[in-house]
Amino acid sequence: MVAAALAGGVTVWVQRDGEPTPAPVVTAGKIEVNYFVSGDSHDADLEYRTGNGTERHDATRLPFRTELWFEKGAALSLRAQGTGTVMCTVTVNDEVVAQVSGGKDGVALCTGQAGVTKALAGAVLPPGGPELRDGEVRLRTVVPIQRFPGRASPTDGRVTDKEAHLSYAELGGVWKASRRANPEVEGFNRTQGFPVESAWDAVIASGVAGSGLMKAYKGDDRLRALVSAALDERQSFDFQGSAIGRDVASQSLKISGHPGWVMARELRYTKDGEDRMTLLVFVAVDTGNPRPSFILMSIPEPEKRHWPDINTVIDSIRVD
To answer: Least buried of 48, 194, 216, 231, by fewest C-beta within 10 Å?
Structure first.
């Protein structure tokens, strides 16, 4: 596999034709760890340890969160440096085990060991959700998703995501064949896409909501809250704080008799000195299992002739 950057700088793994499908990462027996960074800085430079090494991300928009899996006893480390006050927080199985606020130098360093370091008495998670910037919109009312004009791509059978208990139309035409994905690396179970231009892809993907998103899955409005949190997460991680997000649709769905919710967000950003926009759509479905399942669609504006494919996929979703 090779690494490829999508719009806004997100890095994913792309399988070349003829390569074997990667084996799924087994999380059974591993320990869930979440890293959080918050503060009054707009962004921060981050460096943190994963189960496979160390990752570094500069000028990452705050607040930041990422979910990882470690063997028991593995070293944990999260370092953040911003222009203002920053605070790092590490949770293990939803308990805060490290939390440090940076001093005048704007540096915070949290360390520990997965499954070994004890919970900090009285420590609480920092407030979640990104602060809105000028021009950003988060819908709290129902706005139906539009029927996009034009001819949709042909379909080529159906995609079955067994782990998510969902199936939906597999698109043909410019879309590459659906493939199995590595949920720990890519964040979903199935994906298909096509290149828009160098290091910029359109993507459709499906999977099961991670434990981080489940923190938003509460109350009568839990599906909408989870979808909104998922869009915030994708905007923060994929665009590293460079995008302005404007919700343009938010409505409930019925999928094979199961409740669902869909939201669409326009993400505007600058790429290669030009103003760009990607349409990001997220559908969550309560399949009756402990965690909702989802379908994510991201199609950059230069390929907006394929936005009708969004309607095709939404209309085709079934709970299996």
So the answer is: 194
